[in-house]
Design brief:
By secondary structure, the protein is mostly helical. The protein folds into two domains: about 80 residues, no CATH class; about 80 residues, no CATH class. The chain contains seven helices and no strands.
Length: about 160
């Protein structure tokens, strides 16, 4: 089987490349020196995620469970909706760039609302409540349960001071 004719192998190769870059970037995450002998650090979860992704991609590439009669790559991507995909990718990029200014809570809320709009969700009240609930739940879990500092953002500091 030709490698480029298998959509799953090509997709796995892209995810493998991303995972390897992600794995290399993990070692730039600072670790508190006073906690350097702890089993779990800021690098633990990203490191595990990268290793699992690499393992799954290698399995998909070298041990395919599919038969050889696959459709080619061009035929596989014919019906894809590229516009929402690119819009969501741009929204994720803007979400990451807006943390410092908007803060976690507001940036996450707006990102989820924009995501719902891109996916053409018509139930606006449900979208508002889900976006608010998910953002608030994530903020509570990350700050109260895991004691992770999340910046409140420049907007918060402009409105409420300090």
């Amino acid at each position: 089987m030709n490698f480029l004719n298998s959509k799953n192998k090509v997709g796995s190769s892209f995810i493998l490349l991303f995972s390897l870059i992600y794995l290399a970037a993990i070692f730039e995450i600072p670790v508190n020196e006073s906690l350097s002998y702890d089993v779990v650090s800021a690098r633990t979860l990203p490191y595990c995620l990268a290793l699992v992704a690499i393992l799954v991609c290698l399995l998909q590439i070298f041990v395919s469970a599919e038969d050889d009669a696959e459709e080619n790559l061009y035929a596989a991507i014919q019906g894809f909706q590229w516009q929402p995909c690119l819009q969501l990718t741009a929204a994720m990029f803007l979400y990451g760039m807006s943390f410092e200014f908007l803060g976690f809570l507001l940036a996450t809320f707006l990102f989820l609302l924009v995501g719902f709009a891109i996916l053409k969700e018509k139930r606006y009240l449900l979208s508002l409540s889900v976006a608010g609930g998910v953002a608030l739940f994530m903020w509570l879990v990350l700050t109260q349960l895991f004691s992770i500092y999340l910046d409140s953002g420049e907007v918060y500091r402009m409105i409420f001071g300090s």
